[in-house]
Amino acid sequence: MQLLDGKQTSEQIKQEIAQEVTRIREAGGKVPHLAAVLVGSDGASETYVNNKVKSCERVGFESTLVRFDADVSQQTLLDKIAELNADDSIDGYIVQLPLPDHIDENTVTLAIDPDKDVDGFHPTNIGRLCLGMPTFIPATPNGIMELLRRHDIETEGKHCVVVGRSNIVGTPMSLLMSRNSNPGNATVTLVHSRTRDMEAICRSADILVVAIGKAEFLGADMVREGAVVIDVGITRLPDESKKSGFRLAGDVDFAAVSEKCSWITPVPGGVGPMTIASLLQNTLKARQFRQG
Ligand code: GUN
């Protein structure tokens, strides 16, 4: 088994981005500026957003963190979005999900200017992705594609099973893997909670992408010898032996599955850092797009 090392690969991408930022700055241009909107104080969301902002600083981007209490009204949030859309100094922004129950995520996503939607969640951008047009590809699936590309993992003609049909990961991942591109050109099966005989389908996969948010869901009995396994899950499990009181677990039983597969992403240090690197790539693209 070999590790698909997202930490190392993302560092390489960040270095490339930092070089481009230096070039922009030396040419007297405006450096990319990412804003992140965080509603409430969910521990995991807070960690993700802080990592995104910190990574901006590391590559030389400008960043702005906009925080609201969990009880903020939907209208106040929409007003802030209108402000970010109109603010010429902001190249791209994200609204961290999930949002509190009283806020409609679709309404919020629709309010984001598609040209600043560096998460690639707006229907216009998802539509462009479906049609194979240039767009912002959602950061997690894009990061996975980049990880496969940079490790020369063959995908053409392979059977790729995507576990989970979320808007953020499973659905765009299945589109990307079936596209006529490299990586891509795979035969894709998207399995979900209503799929019959999921175990047998997973066992027939050359490439497995697991994104259902259930800790250690995928066991060795669901993996074919030599498969490539991408673990998107990251769940906090209570662990009193840790100072934080929790440990991080993926959707894959790493200890068991790593004995059987050819490549696997660790958790942490696999898909997570690649998501952030992709967001930075999208923000750079947004800047380049806005300056024409
Ligand atoms: N919540 C979990 N993943 C993501 C992501 O990629 N973007 C946003 N905005 N929220 C998320």
Summarize the structure.
This protein has helices at 6-26, 43-59, 74-86, 105-111, 123-130, 139-150, 170-178, 198-203, 254-257, 271-290, and strands at residues 2-3, 33-39, 62-68, 92-95, 159-163, 187-191, 207-210, 228-231, 235-238, 246-249, 263-264.
Please give the CATH architecture of the largest domain: 3-Layer(aba) Sandwich
The fraction of residues in strands falls at 15-25%
Counted by DSSP, the helix tally is 10
Rg over CA atoms, rounded to whole Å, is: 19 Å
Summed over residues and divided by their number, the pLDDT gives a mean of 97
Unreliable segments of 5+ consecutive residues: none
What is the string of SSEs from the N terminus onward? EHEHEHEHHHEHEHEEEEHEH
Shape: globular
Q: Helicity level, as a percent range?
A: 40-55%
Q: N-to-C terminal Cα separation, in Å?
A: 45 Å
The CATH class name of the largest domain reads: Alpha Beta
Structure in words:
The strands form 3 sheets. Strands 1-11-8-7-5-6 form a 6-stranded parallel β-sheet. A 3-stranded parallel β-sheet has the order 3-2-4, with helices on one face. Helix content is 40%, strand content 16%. α6 (139-150) packs across α7 (170-178) and α6 (139-150) packs across α10 (271-290). The mean pLDDT is 97. The longest helix has 21 residues, at 6-26. The protein has 2 domains: 29-113, 3-Layer(aba) Sandwich (Rossmann fold); 139-272, Rossmann fold, CATH 3.40.50. The chain has 10 helices and 11 strands. The protein is α/β, with parallel strands linked by helices. The protein has helices at residues 6-26, 43-59, 74-86, 105-111, 123-130, 139-150, 170-178, 198-203, 254-257, 271-290, and strands at residues 2-3, 33-39, 62-68, 92-95, 159-163, 187-191, 207-210, 228-231, 235-238, 246-249, 263-264. Guanine binds at residues 94-97, 119, 139-140, 168, 275.
